[in-house]
Amino acid sequence: MAAGDLFHKQGIRGVGVEAIAEAAQTNKMTLYRYFESKDELITEWVRGIIAHKEEEWKDLNAKHRGDPEGQLRDWSQRTAAHLREMEERGSALGNAFAELPDPNHPARRVMKEHKLRAHKRVVRLCKAAGFQDPHFSANLFMMMLEGAHSCGQCVGMSQIGEHLVQVVDRMVENNRQQRAGR
Amino acid sequence: MAAGDLFHKQGIRGVGVEAIAEAAQTNKMTLYRYFESKDELITEWVRGIIAHKEEEWKDLNAKHRGDPEGQLRDWSQRTAAHLREMEERGSALGNAFAELPDPNHPARRVMKEHKLRAHKRVVRLCKAAGFQDPHFSANLFMMMLEGAHSCGQCVGMSQIGEHLVQVVDRMVENNRQQRAGR
DNA sequence: ATAGTATGTTACCGGTCGGTAACATTTAGT
DNA sequence: ACTAAATGTTACCGACCGGTAACATACTAT
Asked: Which residues of A touch B13 (CB under 8 A)?
């Protein structure tokens, strides 16, 4: 779905169905034979993004099996890499949240569920990594990763990415030392 | 300008000029005698928010004169308080960024300048507080404060606010100990 | 070749929205 | 009370957008 690029770059509400069809190299009519409304189309796009992220978490889990610290560090590295190739416009999901204020919008519900899952996952990882206060650390991780996107727009993505990786490394290292000292 | 509530709650593009006028207890025509376009109206709203934030920084500076650590801690506390009374919808400026993708939009330019100023200010504070790597710490602060808004939508604002305050306190404390140990 | 299905084309509908014109009404200063 | 400025009212315009109908064309399988 190449229409997603449009959504991300011009904003969901700033892109007409006609433009979406063109980006998908088809036309409006055919589009409406597959999606019953623009809202459903948006929702499907969001679902795609989320599926991709879940896929990445599976990779992360497979690559660092039984190593929650490694997963966290790799997660930050991937996010940093993702930041670097995303000049100007912020996070797709974050923007979508801002652009769909209606709490009953299906896409919004899907995103909320995903965020809850993501948060739980990070809490679980922090628990497994032996962090003293897993909820605290998990919230910290989430805050920083979320904030990196919007923050990079004024500082420069690459620097933000670097610092993100650094601080996650430090947190993991600190935790390791604290555990050793107990 | 009470119309700002509408912008924040329903999204900039989701609010018509008519609704804005009604919220301001006037009508469209009068509105257009003061603002030459909706875009300028949006920009003025954004300017108001920014002015309010700058005002708060003046307060912060006056209250903790010569105490950059106190300013940073108080900043986090105010942000936490602000989070608590902001259930559901994220940061006004962050949302505006998402809703105005056009890089030439005047409001966007204003916001970008403001973000740059804010970042510089925090770097300056971190320098004054004697942080070892002021740019690193400043970026951390910014990331967390930015991220807290979007993150609170899935965890609960009050908890996020608490943790935000805690971590800023810890960073300040760590810095104090490191300085003492040098 | 033919039938059936998927895709493309055009034109249109209803609604909303930003913005304006023309005129009526109120407010305020003297 | 009279004037001038500010505000309100109504109606409208043009543009855009989401969505549909009707029909034409291309593809595919047998």
From this structure: 13-14, 99
